[in-house]
Amino acid sequence: MNDLMIPEYPRRCDLDLMTRHILHPRFQQLPGGISEFTFANLYLFRKAHRYQIAMLPKEVLLLAGADGGKSFFMLPFGLPDEKQLQQLFAEFTVLKCVSEAQAGMLPEMGYRIIEDRDNYDYLYRRQDLAELTGGKFHKKRNLIKAFVSNYSYEGRPLLEEYKGDAFQVLETWRQGRDDPGDYFAAKEALEKTEELQLCGGIYYVDGQPVAYSLGEELMLGRSFAIHFEKAIGEYKGLWQFVNQAFASILPEKYDFINREQDLGDEGLRHAKLSYKPVGFIKKFRAVAGKSSG
Description:
By secondary structure, the protein is α+β, with helices and mostly antiparallel strands. 33% of the residues lie in helices and 27% in strands.
């Protein structure tokens, strides 16, 4: 399965497209639905998090990285033996994107578990976002009604012929920000939609591109993760319209839409909660040392 392209730990290599044929099928078989654990997501943020990969015994994949100079590792396909795990914690300090299943096992092995609420993925029923029925979505429906009444709009699948329009949205979005945010990852995602098997929709007002969504399936095909969503212009109800419009064109095979994390941003958290998630894909961090509790 490795095809000798992924070195055995402690050697590591950068994550690149050459390893996609090995890793993508494995990530597709993950049932947990953690949004970070797709090949496309890891590849697009490989520079931001300085990702590297290695193979542990029994083909357990190691993902190593660093944020702000602090190293971390991730184990999307399960835990290695205890001796190997001790070695990893000695080198990388913290294990990120710990699943609920892993969080249940690690304390017994002497590790402390910390909830990572800022990185919980928000999970919604696709049908809820597509239909917005009931009193809890009354304000959303009113905003969409205002948008539909006030503007001449159109939505299209984000095909190759409309990529230039999506780039225009992204560049305008970037010009309106003090920091780049996820601009570089979003730009590469548009450049490599085919190679990474991403799909999305693009939206126009008066013939001008104003928004797009881009993502992929995960959770064994039960969920669709929206990795990127950009919108520009002061159009009342645009965000609500795009949210519903994209949910309504997704195939019915998707039970859920994963709208990823809020990163601790209070405004973003309020917005995501306002759509009434049915649950969260919970994530944890693990560090050496048992909890004092």
